[in-house]
Each structure stands twice: as structure tokens, then as C-alpha cells.
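[agent] plan:
  1. take the single chain provided in the ticket
  2. run structure prediction with default settings
  3. attach C-alpha cells to the ticket
  4. add a short note for the reviewer (M.T.)
[agent] executing step 1
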Amino acid sequence: MNATLRLWGWPVGLAVLSAVGLLSALLGDGAWDALSWAALGLPTGIAGWYALRR
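[agent] step 2 finished; step 3 output follows
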């Protein structure tokens, strides 16, 4: 695994997940809302877990 992917893999993945959540919140209701909650909640939960771990 190269150094760039090891360094930027998780941040880029969380950024893409956040973008998917924001776009799905704009696209529609129902299942789109559930997708946006999950896609925006996961990065928030991960950040909270790391913040409380310190």
C-alpha cells in the first residue's frame, strides 16, 4: 500500500461519504432521507469517537 493512500484514504473516503449524504438530502424524500442520515451520521460518529477517545 503506498504512502499517499495510507495517509489520505480515510479522510477522502469520509469526504466522499459526506458529499453523498449532502446530495441525497437534496435529491428527494423517503429513502433518500435515510441515506442522507446514514451518510452524514457515520463521519460525525467517527469524529466523535476519536474526540472522546483522547
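[agent] step 4 note for reviewer: Residues 3-27 form the longest helix (25 residues).
[agent] ticket updated
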